Amino acid sequence: MVAVLSVQFGGALAATLLPLVGVLGSVLLRIVLAALLLLALVRPRWRGRSRADWITVAGFAAALTAMNICFYASLERLPIGVAVTIEFLGPLLLAAATSRRGRDALAVLLALLGVLFISQALTVPWAQMDLVGIALAAAAGGFWAAYIVLSGRTGARFEGLDGMAIALTIGAVVLVPLGVLDAGTALLDGEVLLRGLGIALLSSAIPYSLELLALRRLSAGTFGVLLSLEPAAAALAGLLVLSQTLASLQVAGMAMVVLASIAVLGRRGRGT
């Protein structure tokens, strides 16, 4: 639960950084600082890796980086609770796609209806909806699904957190020129660096470590149920950190997605 809350409060903190350094600058700070923390703690082994190892971890880095860019871009347009709920369709659809149970298909339909509610597609004219923000959140969900698949493959080839540390390093190297061009010297501001460090800790270092410990003690089903609370945790973070509120119909839609996620992920867990 602490990991779930940490990720979402990290996302809310990231929303406060976006006006200062933009999307690419914010993602750069998160990934670079998280990479430095993990490199210092993990000290991954770089030599002796096969070509297949590098292809796998590079794909994992690409999915991780693209997921963060799309999600942070959606935060510029949508409340964090809405963005996370839409993004959550990615792992939900991935888990349901590998299932042959009719109940999972019904859960996906419930989640899709919930997304219609939370996106206000049924109550607000399309001309007034932020379709770009919704598309960005959905794209983040797609990359999240790819991240889950590639995370499992990376974990099978790299011991401990070596794969994560190397993937973050690759993402950081690729993002440095893009982030610097986008944000410039604002990246060196003391307040910006402090917020970036907070995001790196809350969104990466703390939850990754806690989830690793939790998975040693919890079943995959229990872990999946707790993971399914992330949209609700995001709404709470949005309210407390950003003063974002949701309409009653949006809250109902979020509850539908959470229930659908519990039904599907409660059996399978994050590693599906």
From TrEMBL:
Keywords: Membrane, Transmembrane, Transmembrane helix
Keyword Transmembrane helix: yes
Keyword Transmembrane helix annotated: yes
Segments crossing the lipid bilayer: 24-42, 54-74, 80-98, 105-125, 131-149, 161-180, 192-210, 222-241, 247-266
Domain EamA: 132-264
Organism domain of life: Bacteria
Family of the protein in this entry: Belongs to the EamA transporter family.
Protein name (record): EamA family transporter
Native organism: Ornithinimicrobium faecis
